[in-house]
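Field reference: sequence -> structure
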Amino acid sequence: MNLAIFPLPLVLFPGGIIRLQIFEQRYLRMVKQSAAETGFVITPHDSKHPNEISHYGTWVKIIDFPQLSNGLLGIDVQAQSLMSITNIHIEQDNLAMGDTTEQPHWPQQQHNEQTQALATALKQLFVVNPTLKTLYADPQFDDVNWTCKRWLESLPISATDKAYFYAPDSFELALNLICSVVFAKK
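Structure field:
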């Protein structure tokens, strides 16, 4: 699938939702093209590649157009799947396009005492963070993978470090990192 590419300093995992504000002409065109159910790819900035566009990212679809107080176009997008990106080219208006292929992520995990504690802590984070409550009308706290992915998106680590967890065999490392941060001794 040939999709528009939106490089941002963030990582979003499947099931994740984020609110973006759009103001550059090339990205306004991207939204217009993507609103027809095709979506686009959010990719973390990568200084090692031309135009700082990585060769991996997350395919997202627009799920809402919220009214922003600053008058800019707002879009809520939900991550569908991880994608590899090849044949990247820059169009005349500087919008990047690339051929994308869906990539597998983590196999489904079962809750245990540790992951149940993470789900409980994430519920508490949702209570104190009204933005999360607004974006996730139907949170999936019973899904271990969903819970861990939301924690990874929320942790104060760089997008480059978060992108490591795109790997399909990275669940255990992700779980260890999340637990070390969430349950750190104070």
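Note: The chain has a mean pLDDT of 92.
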